[in-house]
Design goal:
Layout lengths: L6 E5 L1 E5 L22 E5 L9 H25 L3 H6 L4 H10 L3 E2 L5 E2 L20 H9 L10 E5 L5 E5 H4 L1 H17 L3 H16 L3 H9 L5 E7 L14 E9 H7 L6 H6 L17 E12 L9 E4 L3 H7 L2 E5 H19 L10 H14 L14 H5 L3 H22 L8 H16 L6 H15 L3 E3 L6 E3 L1 H21 L2 H11 L4 H12 L5 E5 L8
Parallel strand pairs: 3-15, 10-12
Antiparallel strand pairs: 1-2, 4-5, 6-7, 8-9, 9-10, 11-12, 13-14
Helix pairs in contact: 1-6, 6-7, 7-8, 12-16, 13-15, 13-16, 15-16, 15-17, 15-18, 16-17, 17-19
Length: 549
C-alpha cells in the first residue's frame, strides 16, 4: 500500500504529528502556482448587531471562542500537527493557502499537494491509521468491532497492532472541555430557555459523546435570534468510508423578516414526498413536519465548514432518528450566499450563459434553489428498503456525493412543483432553471474531492446527455431547454432515489464512473472562467474585532 503524507502516533491520550513520506515525487514550492490565492476572494463577515440584546452581544465572543476549539480539532482530524506544517512553509502566501485548506492539499484541485514533500492526501484523512487497508478495517468490523464505525470515534492501533476505537471526547479532551466551559458560560447569559437548554446539553455532549439529546433540543428552539452550530457533524472529510464526523462551528444571527417568508414551506413536505417521481416503496417514509426553515447571517465559521469551499446553507441534524421524529432545521446563510452570488455567480454567468438568458440569473432564484436543496435532504428515504441498514452506512464513502446530488435535483423538483401549485411566485421558473445551470458550473469548480463538486459533475453530464441545455459552438455559451431539463430532472431524481433505497453501492460507483468525467468542452468552459479571473470561492475576514466587539 502506498505510503501517505503523514503518520499518526497514539500514546495514551491522542497526539498527532504530520510527517513527509518517502517514495513520492516531491512537489517543489517554486513550481507551485503563485496565483493559488486568486482562487478565493475575501469577504468581510458581519451583520447588523443592533438586532442583538446586550446579553446576546456578550455571548458572541464566548461562542466564537468555543468554535475556535472546533477549528483546533479539525486541523488534527484533517491533517495532524498544524504548527509543524506552517513552520515548514516560508512563503507567506503558501502558508496562508495551507491555512485555508487545513493542510498541504488543495481542496479546490482534487486535493493536489502544494507543499514540497507531501504526497496524496489519505482518503481517510487522519481518522484512521494511514497503514490501514479497507479490507483490514472491514475484517475487524465483521469480527466484532462494530464500534470502529462509530461516528464520533477515531480508529487507532492498540498495543498488539490491532484496530481500536478512540472516542472523540477522549482523543480531544482539552478542546472539548474548553468548548464545554464556554458553552456553559454562554448558557448563563441566554435569555431564551430553549437556547440555554441546548447550550447546556451540547456542552454535556462534547464531554460524553452523547449528541442526540442536544440535537433534539436544537430542533425545539424556535424563538432565539442568536444561534450556534457546533461539534462533530458532517462526514465529507472521511472519503474512505464516510463514517467519521468532522468538527466545525458556526455562529449565527437570525433574519426574522426573511425567516417569516420561508416558514410556510415546511408544512408542504409530506405532499412533496408523495409526489416524488419514483415508485411508492422509495418514498414511504414521511418527513417530519416540525422542521424549521429560516434565514440567518453567519458571523463566524470554523473547522470543516471553513475548509476550502464555504457552506452557504445548513440542513441538520444528520441523525436519521431525529429527522424522522422531528424533521430537520434548514438554515440559509444569507450574507454568505449573497457574497457568492455577487462575487462569483454573476461574473460566471456573464462568461458562460447565452446573453438572451442572462436576465434569468437572479439572487431570489439562487436563494430559492439553495434553500430547497437543503429542504430536499428531508425527502426520499433514510433506510434502505431491503434490509441493508441506513442509506449512509450501505453506500459508505459514496453516500455524501449521492446525497448532495439528490438534494440538488430534488430541490429543483420542489421549485418546479411549488411554482405549478402557485406556492412559489417570486420571479419565473426560468429564473430557477437558468440560475441552476449557472450554479452547476460554480460547484463543479470545487473539484472531484468535494462531494458537492462530484455531484454537480454527474448532474452536468446526465443533463447534457438528455439535452437539458445546449452549447453554442461559436461562442461557447450555454442555453437552457426548459422542457428537457424538467425531463432530465425527473429521470435523475428517480435514479438516485432507487440507488439510495436499494443501498446499491456498486450502482452508485457505476453512476459516478459513467458521469463523473470531465470532457474537453466542460474543461474549456472552466478554463475560460479562470482566464477571466473569476474566483472559485470566498474566504472570510471574521471574528470579534471584525464585528466591533
Amino acid at each position: 500500500m502506498r505510503k501517505h503524507a503523514f503518520w499518526i502516533v497514539l500514546a495514551g491520550v491522542l497526539s498527532s504529528q504530520a510527517c513527509r513520506p518517502g517514495g513520492e515525487e516531491p512537489m517543489s514550492a517554486e513550481k507551485t502556482d503563485a496565483r493559488l490565492l486568486d482562487k478565493y476572494t475575501t469577504v468581510r463577515l458581519t451583520t447588523d448587531l443592533s438586532r442583538l440584546t446586550a446579553a446576546q452581544r456578550q455571548m458572541v465572543p464566548l461562542l466564537i471562542e468555543a468554535c475556535q476549539q472546533m477549528d483546533e480539532v479539525f486541523w488534527k482530524q484533517a491533517f495532524g500537527d498544524r504548527t509543524a506544517l506552517l513552520s515548514s512553509v516560508a512563503d507567506p502566501d503558501l502558508q496562508r493557502f495551507a491555512q485555508i485548506n487545513y493542510g498541504p492539499w488543495d481542496r479546490l484541485d482534487d486535493n493536489r499537494p502544494f507543499v514540497a514533500g507531501y504526497g496524496p492526501k489519505p482518503p481517510g484523512a487522519n481518522f484512521y491509521p494511514t497503514d490501514m487497508s479497507k479490507e483490514e478495517f472491514e475484517g475487524a468490523v465483521s469480527g466484532g468491532g462494530e464500534a470502529l464505525k462509530g461516528l464520533y470515534t477515531l480508529v487507532r492501533r492498540d498495543a498488539q497492532g490491532g484496530l481500536t476505537p478512540v472516542a472523540y471526547h477522549e482523543a480531544f479532551t482539552a478542546e472539548h472541555q474548553r468548548a464545554a466551559e464556554l458553552l456553559r458560560s454562554a448558557a448563563r447569559l441566554a435569555e431564551s430557555p430553549g437556547l440555554q437548554r441546548y447550550l447546556e446539553l451540547r456542552a454535556q455532549a462534547l464531554l460524553t459523546g452523547q449528541y442526540q439529546p442536544s440535537d433534539l433540543a436544537w430542533m425545539d428552539m424556535k424563538d432565539n435570534t442568536l444561534d450556534v452550530v457546533i461539534g462533530p457533524i458532517e462526514t465529507y472529510e472521511d472519503q474512505l468510508f464516510g463514517y467519521k464526523a468532522a468538527h466545525e462551528g458556526y455562529v449565527l444571527v437570525k433574519d426574522q423578516e426573511w425567516s417569516q417568508r420561508l416558514a410556510r414551506y415546511t408544512a408542504l413536505l409530506p405532499g412533496l414526498q408523495r409526489g416524488l417521481p419514483v415508485a411508492d416503496a422509495y418514498k414511504r417514509q414521511t418527513p417530519g413536519t416540525d422542521s424549521d426553515l429560516n434565514a440567518y447571517d453567519v458571523i463566524y465559521y470554523a473547522g470543516d465548514c471553513n475548509a476550502g469551499s464555504k457552506t452557504i446553507a445548513i440542513n441538520l441534524p444528520n441523525d436519521e432518528r431525529v429527522q424522522l421524529e422531528k424533521g430537520t432545521r434548514r438554515l440559509q446563510l444569507k450574507n454568505a450566499m449573497r457574497a457568492k452570488f455577487d462575487e462569483i455567480l454573476v461574473p460566471l454567468a456573464r462568461e458562460l450563459i447565452e446573453p438572451g438568458q442572462l436576465e434569468h440569473v437572479t439572487f431570489d432564484a439562487f436563494f430559492a434553489n439553495t434553500m430547497f436543496h437543503e429542504v430536499a435532504h428531508g425527502l426520499g428515504i433514510k433506510e434502505t428498503i431491503n434490509g441493508r441498514g441506513s442509506v449512509r452506512t450501505a453506500l459508505k464513502e459514496q453516500a455524501s456525493a449521492l446525497e448532495e446530488g439528490k438534494a440538488d435535483v430534488l430541490g429543483l423538483y420542489m421549485v418546479t412543483r411549488l411554482t405549478a401549485d402557485g406556492e412559489l411566485s417570486e420571479g419565473s421558473l426560468q429564473d430557477n432553471y437558468v440560475t441552476f445551470l449557472s450554479s452547476i458550473f460554480r460547484s463543479i469548480r470545487f473539484g472531484a474531492s468535494s462531494a458537492h463538486g462530484r455531484a454537480n459533475l454527474v448532474r452536468f453530464n446526465f443533463f447534457e446527455e438528455r439535452g437539458a441545455f445546449s452549447r453554442d459552438a461559436e461562442t461557447g455559451r450555454y442555453r437552457v431547454d426548459m422542457d428537457r431539463m424538467r425531463e432530465a430532472m425527473n429521470a435523475l431524481s428517480e435514479k438516485i432515489l432507487r440507488l439510495q433505497g436499494d443501498g446499491d453501492y456498486d450502482g452508485v460507483v457505476a453512476l459516478m464512473q459513467r458521469y463523473g468525467q470531465m470532457d474537453s468542452g466542460l474543461r474549456g468552459a472552466l478554463e475560460q472562467l479562470t482566464s477571466a479571473g473569476i474566483p472559485v470561492d470566498i474566504v472570510f475576514e471574521q471574528g470579534v474585532e471584525v464585528l466591533g466587539l
